[in-house]
Amino acid sequence: MTSFSRRPRGSIMLLVLVFAGIFSTVLTALSGYVLVQNRSEDAARTKVQAFSVAEAGLEYYRWYLEHFPNDLTNGTGDAGPYPVTISAPEGGIAGTASLTITANTSCAQTTSIDISSTGTSTEDPSFPQTLVARYARPSVASYSYIVHDSVWAGADRVINGPYHSNGGIRMDGTSNAPVTSSLSTWICTSNFGCSHNTSEPGVFGAGTDQNLWDYPTPQVNFAGIAADFSSLKTTAQSGGIYLPRYSSGNSGSNAYHKGYHLVFSENGTVTVWHVTSTTKLNVTPVNSSDPSTDYALINNETRDATYTLPASCGLIFIEDNTWIEGTIPSKVTVVVANVSDTGVVPDAFLHGTITYASNGGTSGLTLISEHNILIAPDSPQDMTLDGVFVAQSGAFGRNYYSCSSYPSYSQKGTLTILGSTISYKRTGTQWTGSACGKNYSSGYATRIDSFDRALANNPPPFTPTTSTDFRFVDWRQE
Q1: Where do the domains of the chain lie?
Q2: pLDDT tens-digit readout, 292-338
Q3: pLDDT tens per residue, range 386-407
Q4: How far apart are CA 264 and CA 382, in angstroms?
Q5: CA pseudo-torsion sign 177, 181, 187, 191
Q6: Hey, CA dihedral for 344, 350, 352, 358, is it positive or negative?
């Protein structure tokens, strides 16, 4: 009898169902993945479109302000935001930019304009993109150094931030940003370490990152800074703090060298002292045009008053010699210039450490002197200076105090500057040579210079500008 083997019919059906289930699961997962990827690509494309629309909105209002510089309402006269339709290059509508315009003011004057642009794509408005930009004139605060005269940065110098001279530059130091000169060529003399008078490129030397050197570039207008003194005095009288001349006589008299001593406090005040007399010292001046004596050392002073810094007008205008120190509580600009008395040209003196009550751009100091900004002989052994320092027609630096004549004033330790040094004449905070057992003769042994990135695009009010043209000085995505 023949026997036959039979495969159970149910087992085949079970295998079919199992494999069908697996295939269905894989297909569903794959379809979901493809769908998610498509949605992700659509979202990314829409975000790029919205970003472009937001950027076009910024450019539109930059153009608008060039034609209507005082109109912050897009011609409506009403509060924003202001919707602006953005056309696509290939035709049709790319999307809509919603603009919010905010003026930054000090002393009732607009100092900069913030523009926020939120772009949405016509294709899908679900993914808006927001860009924020500041529209202003670029200021000197975006430089570590600006010098009108030719300069020599020695091998011991470390300069963080852009460095510019209207003259020639011998750069032997270390720099990490553009080094620019307004000259194509210049004559390097022994004052700049050249053994013979030689014609050199606008920037030359043994310094680092020479690919960042650039010349010739436009000059910075120092004369334009002085042109604003009269209007700044009027502005300070109406909304800030104004201090008239306290000294008297001409530069040959002791009374000429009186002035004011300002001590800033983090509580929002500045205490003002009358400097009633100073001590005459024999020096070699950092500004070669000055006499071989200085009156930077306070001998006697009397308290005048304590002022609360106006929140809406951070401007102090002083028509006399001024000594400054303390903790800067907010954005403050101090102008030391005399526009009332013919022949009176005051100096500013850095008497002690100057720091900010808060970092990140909330606090800031700009000191503008009609003549010199000099570090006082009795300055701290280790000194920190936060601020933008502008010596409009003179020099920034420290006079030469002989260690044999003035041992307590001559040789100091470390000078740290966070901010910008702007000087018409050559700067100098260390005198070379050796004296009294040290490898430098006077000044600060170690100098650390860095520009303040937080203030570069948001400086104190009325900080001098480097261009008459408004432009975007800050740009970010939110």
Answers
A1: 46-136, 140-465
A2: 999 999 999 999 999 999 999 999 999 999 999 999 999 999 999 99
A3: 999 999 999 999 999 999 999 9
A4: 19
A5: negative
A6: positive
Q: Please enumerate in sequence order all residues whose Cβ is within 8 A of that of 54, keeping only pairs 6 or more positions apart, or say none.
A: 97, 117, 118, 119, 129, 130, 131
CA-based end-to-end distance of the chain: 89
- Counting every residue written for the chain, the total comes to 478
| Strands (E) located in 268-382 | 269-282, 293-308, 315-318, 321-328, 331-336, 348-356, 364-369, 373-375
Q: Quick check: 312 and 293 in contact, CB under 8 A? A: no
Q: Are the C-beta atoms of residues 338 and 245 closer than 8 Å to each other? A: yes
pTM as predicted: 0.87
Q: Residues 61, 99: contact at Cβ < 8 Å?
A: yes
Question: Which structure tokens are listed for 53?
Answer: 């629309």
DSSP state of 411: E
CA distance 465 to 228: 11
Which of these, 282, 431, 413, 426, lies nearest to 353 by C-alpha position?
413
Nearest to 315 by CA among 370, 261, 231, 235: 235
Tokens of 234: 């009027």
